[in-house]
Amino acid sequence: MDTAEVREGVQLIAYADRFGGSVGALREVLDGPLAGLFTGVHILPFFTPFDGADAGFDPVDHAAVDPRLGTWDDVRALGAEYTLMVDLIVNHVSADSAEFQDVLARGDDSPHAGMFLTMDDVYPLGATEADLVGIYRPRPGLPFAVLTLGKRKRLVWTTFTSQQIDLNLANPTARAYLDRVLTTLADGGVSMVRLDAVGYAVKTAGTSSFMTPQTFTFIDQLTAQARALGVQVLVEIHAHFERQIAIGSAVDRVYDFALPPLLLHSLFTGDAAPLHRWLDVRPVNAVTVLDTHDGIGVIDVGPDQMGDGRPGLLTPDQVHDLVEGIHERSGGHSRQATGWAASNLDVYQVNCTYYDALGRDDVAYLIARAMQFFTPGIPQVYYVGLLAGGNDMDLLAASGVGRDINRHRYTRTEIDAELQRPVVAALAGLIRLRNTHAAFGGECTVGGEGERLSLTWTDGEHTASLDVAFASRRVTLMWTGEDGNMRVCNDLLELA
Question: Any idea which residues carry the catalytic annotation?
Answer without folding.
Answer: 196, 236
